[in-house]
């Protein structure tokens, strides 16, 4: 306080009561007795609506104020002093009560997503990392590739082992492209002439005893010959 006061004139700026030997508080360099300071300047508690006195701890959050004893969870009334908390519609909640009432939940186990948990989202649903599983092997998908099947997810190894098309010739999984002939799937590179091994995809071919042959080989091996020109008489289908 910059001003000097004679002992007989050292008084409360608001009520003029003597402050000699009394506790007081300065505001804008003006002394106030405790009663006047609390009446004019103390914050009002959000919970009990009483003034937060000079001898009470004032806890504040987003320009709102509470007595320490009033700063508690709206649901379980646990004190929130020195504890993590969250707000919903202006109400305070301890982290447990907030999670129980408002936190997003896993579509697998229905448990809540706590702070720091990794969340996997797919087709409008969300899972804990340990709940986002392959429907076949029950192992977590994690960052691995997967394939959707009937609203479920299947890891690539399980999908290939159980559901993927396999080549009629080599029995390996057909991962891309492929050729279908008479209802059977083939790798493009496996769909070849039974005689010469030429790839048949995009070419005219026919079959003999369920085996495919290119036009040239079929003509040479199986077709009847024209009695006049001796060339094979063929009629070929295609893919």
Automatic annotation (TrEMBL):
GO molecular function term, any single one: zinc ion binding
Keywords assigned: LIM domain, Metal-binding, Nucleus, Repeat, Zinc, Zinc-finger
Predominant location: nucleus
The LIM zinc-binding domain, residue ranges: 43-104, 165-224
Top-rank lineage group of the source organism: Eukaryota
A Pfam family per the record: LIM
InterPro entries: LIM_FHL1/2/3/5_N, Znf_LIM
Provenance organism: Schistosoma japonicum
Localization: Nucleus
Name of this protein: SJCHGC06016 protein
